[in-house]
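Worked Example 4.2. Consider the chain below.
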Amino acid sequence: MQGTDLFEFESMMQELPHHRNYTKEDKLIKKRYMRMLERLIAEGGYISIKCRIMKSIKLMSFEDFYYADREHASSFGIAYSRYMSQAKEKVNNKVIAVIYLLTATPKLNRALYEYMKNRKYVLPEKIQTTGEEAYNLYQMAKKILGDDTVVTDEDFLEPEIIEDKILCIMINALFLQKFGFQAIYEDSKRKEKPKYINTPKYHRRKSQSFRYNNQTVKIRK
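Applying the procedure from the previous section yields the following structure tokens:
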């Protein structure tokens, strides 16, 4: 791998998004995410860490919980878009989860580069990195892919081994593996369905009223 190629890749990953104000839709997304996360925790047998995870997400905005920082959000967005343009209809949620983990810190940029340049999406066997956070994130990526790893479910219970922020990133990766990235946004794209407030009292009644978009509409039959 050429040093110039890696430099260009790292420069691309440093593009940061503009900060935005949180809307009602953001709050709905967070609420929907929490419901799905509780399902993941229950089905995955992670009940013992539920309090740690739910406490963290309740204290943070959704984006602060979902990403390590703004650079993580930007890096993941760029890498995710690149992967989706290549994968098209053959989307693999495990690959998305691994990309999410490898973009959580610049210390894993080289591993991310090696992972994404190969269309088979195989993690490099060895990486040179410093810091316990990067090491734990990389081991979690290996766990998701079914490779041998030193990270165990018991480690999730130990704040001394995995701090809350990194634990949130790991659980989010499991969420992506199970549900994919678009799962929490799909419902918001659906249009509101009309809710009927009355039905004809008599068989020959010639009109019917219903509410749609907070307006009462009467239809003549």
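The chain is about 55% helix and 5% strand. The longest strand covers residues 207-212. Compare this with Example 4.1 before moving on.
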